[in-house]
Amino acid sequence: MKVLVSGASVGGPVLAYWLRRHGYETTLVERAPAPRKGGQAVDIRGAALDVVAKMGVIERIRALRTTMRGMSMVDGDGNELMRSYEETVSGGRFDSPDIEIMRDDLTTILTSASGAEYVYGDSIATLDQDADGVDVTFESGGRGRYDYVFGADGLHSNVRRLTFGPEERFLHHLGTYVSIFTADNFLGLDRWQTWFREGDTGGALFSDRDATVMRVNLGFGAGPIDYDHRDVEQQKRLVQERCSGLRWEVPKLLEAMWKADDFYFDAMAQVRMERWSKGRVALVGDAGYCASPLSGQGTSLALVGAYVLAQELGRDPIGAFDRYEERMRPYVAQNQALALENPGQGASPESVQRAATSITLD
């Protein structure tokens, strides 16, 4: 059987890996012209650790995990309010079995392990399905027919839009926007996180193995904003406007933002849908059930969702999507709830642990 997967971040490569082992011929199409670099630190917890262990890549992931020594929080003028050598906001306690890794390091490992065909710089233009397959036209003008099409293409999923309708029907805004980019480490951070906040605006700075650079997060609270998700210049202007009142080192960070070629910006939002499949098309990860970075579980949801979907297709394609949803929905609900448990502070470690382990893989 021929399968097309849209999206080559986390869920797409993992889905391709497992589908190939169940005998499916898998192609991934990715709108970006090349593998995306940059991004935030992401976490692999609970059942998701079992997925990467079954793939045989857990030791490669551990070898590239972040090596943070601790974190501090500062006020608007950079005066330290607290520090910890036992945990970080992004990765939790250092004595936890969880793995924190930079997003681009993880996607590089998963892509190389998948063994699938990748087509970069293209995207699906139309989907036309019947009882036996899905006819696809691509923005490049190419065409293909596939037994199944899967959307692993993120919060603003193109496959979801083409199959289920406008994203406004499914996105639930959580009142925050965040930007992420790489800058020169002019603060000299050494495997350290520094967090700052004034009112509903703030950010975080991360330095890990490469001491010459740091990952910068700048964010602000706001209701839904009408902007072009592909217009990076417009997005940078939004961050400039909302964060220009911050003091400390923020003016230098904003200057660095305009030079960054790995800039990312989006809303903190969740995707909630009554169904994740229609006919021969199904969604996985953020495309179907984004929990938002505020949950800390988006990567784990994508890893587990891809594994379960492929597992059910491998067992029997008939009824596979129903079984996928039956197994995943309680797990998704618990993990999405983490983002809402304690707004502004984060869910408790106990809640995170319960959610991360609330599904069995076999």
Automatic annotation (TrEMBL):
Superkingdom of the source species: Bacteria
GO MF term list: FAD binding
Any Pfam family: FAD_binding_3
Region annotation Disordered: where it falls in the sequence: 342-362
FAD-binding domain location: 2-314
Feature: compositional bias, Polar residues: 348-362
Record InterPro entries: FAD-bd, FAD/NAD-bd_sf, FAD_aromatic-hydroxylase
Protein name: 2-polyprenyl-6-methoxyphenol hydroxylase-like FAD-dependent oxidoreductase
Organism: Nonomuraea jabiensis
